[in-house]
Write a structure and sequence with these properties.
524 residues, alpha+beta, Rossmann fold, seven-stranded mixed sheet, five-stranded antiparallel sheet, 16 helices, 23% strand, globular, disordered N terminus, disordered C terminus
Length: 524
């Protein structure tokens, strides 16, 4: 069964389940507070749907044993080929992962975070693996065999379940984790105080800075300066070093979680080398790039170190002539961080332009007045109906690296406010294109970074973004697999060849009618 059909069936089943659940338990419609357990129920139902447990009669209530269950071990965990021994170009390769702890004991629970890549360095071809967590300690990894010849597979255990639970429960629910330095200036008087973003909590006698249109209930709260008024706040800033200090405090507090016996992340038996036999590829026609596309078994592959082939939708390498047609009568507005700002360079290559706004409040970077940047919601709401009549608007957003240490509630609330502004824009303007550039993996070169800027947090942000913006016509520019499978160093600011491929894919969403429909009939 094609993966798109399977996705549609699962989606339909989920909708039926939700309808029956709401009918049986109507309180979900009028009092959702404190109902995080709904997600736990969904998780356990998923896990048990993959478990095979023999029914039996128990004569005693407990089995008594003495044992130790540790974290998942890269040395004991096994990855084996579950595809046919003869692999042909154009097919899918399946790898099965069964997790064990250091004692060789089955983990019997999911939640570990793996990354997978398949490549041929000589041919400069590569692709990322799609990892399916069955919830019971086993995982399936799927690779698209995009070339013939040798293939080198590496699967790494990036984060264990316990570490992710720590991030999710101890940090992502924690208020006031980030401590900004607020600078107040009034004439010759300068004072600094500490500021925090607070969504849940109480306070007294503080300077409050609110924007319900953009941040909802999240408030920037600063200790009141002694000699100047609250209105004289000039700037807020938090440095990367300050985030490192916060992470050091967490490491000291939960030391046992961070006692790593080894820095090795590759599973035992990696790399795995395979041979892919040549065979003609007849790719089924991909859908045009648009909103809410199904997530396939493979997002795509690098045909060489400068060209990425999407398998999500029809995309292409864009020429100047094609760009000019696409950009005609369009006004590009963007809001995000420096990972999105990199598009300015590629726009310039095509003699194009877009208005870029840095997100606020920012982490690191140069000090700018707090009154200079604008929130995403305000930028979108400032686009008037008359402006839409003279231009076709393209709004490009990203919610990425500066949000790594935000609490989940504050992050979600900000996204919801942006969603509402997008819906308002769609009502007053003629078919605006809204592009959300998703986050990608970055370099975590030391332990503190894996806490305040964890790649799992960015991965989870992508899931949240899809959930919040799904179904309203927003286009998701997902570049995670493109980045992790590339031949370039994985950093916040990727090599220009990767950025250019991200940009080309984005143009394919903005102007799908200009994409050559014949390119997918070629034998790759």
């Amino acid at each position: 069964m094609p993966i798109t059909d399977k996705t549609n069936i699962i989606s339909s089943m989920d909708q039926d389940h939700n309808r029956s659940f709401n009918t049986l338990f109507p309180y979900i419609d009028y009092n959702r507070f404190g109902m995080e357990w709904v997600n736990i129920v969904d998780e356990l139902e998923w896990i048990n749907s993959h478990n095979k447990v023999d029914t039996r009669n128990y004569e005693v209530p407990f089995a008594i044993e003495i044992g130790t269950l540790g974290q998942t071990s890269v040395f004991k965990t096994r990855a084996t080929l579950c595809s046919k021994k003869i692999i042909y170009k154009g097919s899918y390769i399946c790898i099965s992962i069964v997790t064990f702890d250091d004692n060789g004991r089955p983990r019997n629970r999911g939640g570990d975070f793996f990354s997978a890549r398949m490549s041929n360095d000589i041919l400069q071809k590569s692709t990322a693996g799609r990892i399916l967590d069955h919830g019971n300690g086993t995982y399936s990894v799927y690779f698209y065999a995009a070339w013939s010849g040798t293939a080198r597979i590496t699967i790494a255990l990036t984060f264990v379940r316990e570490f992710i639970n720590y991030l999710k429960d101890a940090l992502k629910t924690k208020e006031q984790l980030m401590e900004f330095t607020g600078t107040y200036i009034d004439g010759n008087i300068t004072e600094t105080t500490t500021c925090h973003l607070i969504n849940e909590g109480i306070w007294s006698g503080m300077c409050e800075y609110t924007n319900r249109n953009a941040m909802g209930k999240t408030v920037l709260v600063c200790h009141k300066p002694v000699h100047v008024d609250c209105s004289k706040l000039y700037s807020t800033k938090i440095s990367g070093k300050r985030l490192d200090l916060l992470a050091e405090e967490e490491i000291a507090r939960t030391k046992t979680l961070f006692d790593r016996k080894t820095d090795r992340v590759l599973l035992e038996g990696m790399p795995m080398n395979l041979t892919i036999h040549d065979s003609p590829i007849y790719l089924s026609k991909l859908p045009i790039c648009g909103p809410d596309l199904p997530i396939p078994l493979s997002d795509g592959y690098w045909a060489n170190n400068r060209t990425y082939i999407s398998m999500v939708c029809r995309s292409q390498q864009w020429t100047q002539e094609q760009f000019d047609k696409c950009a005609a009568n369009k006004k590009f507005v963007a809001s995000g961080d420096s990972a999105l700002r990199e598009f300015i360079g590629v726009f310039s290559e095509f003699q194009g332009h877009f208005d870029f706004h840095f997100m606020t409040p920012r982490i690191a970077g140069p000090i700018v007045t707090i009154w200079e940047p604008m929130f995403e919601s305000d930028i979108i709401d400032n686009i008037t109906q008359s402006e839409c009549q003279s231009h076709n608007y393209v709004v490009i957003l990203n919610f990425c690296f500066h949000y790594g240490a935000w609490s989940t509630r504050s992050f979600v609330e900000r996204l919801v406010q942006v969603k509402l502004s997008v819906e308002r824009l769609m009502k007053r303007c003629r078919n605006p294109k809204i592009i959300v550039k998703m986050s990608h993996s970055r370099d975590n070169v030391y332990m503190e970074q894996t806490i305040h800027s964890s790649n799992w947090s960015f991965y989870d942000m992508n899931r949240i973004i899809r959930r919040v913006f799904g179904g309203i016509g927003v286009h998701f520019l997902d570049v995670w697999d493109m980045v992790i499978s590339s031949f370039y160093n994985i950093t916040v600011h990727m090599d220009i060849h990767v950025v250019r491929q991200e940009f080309y894919l984005m143009l394919s969403y903005i102007c799908p009618e200009l994409v050559d429909s014949e390119i997918y009939s070629e034998n790759n």
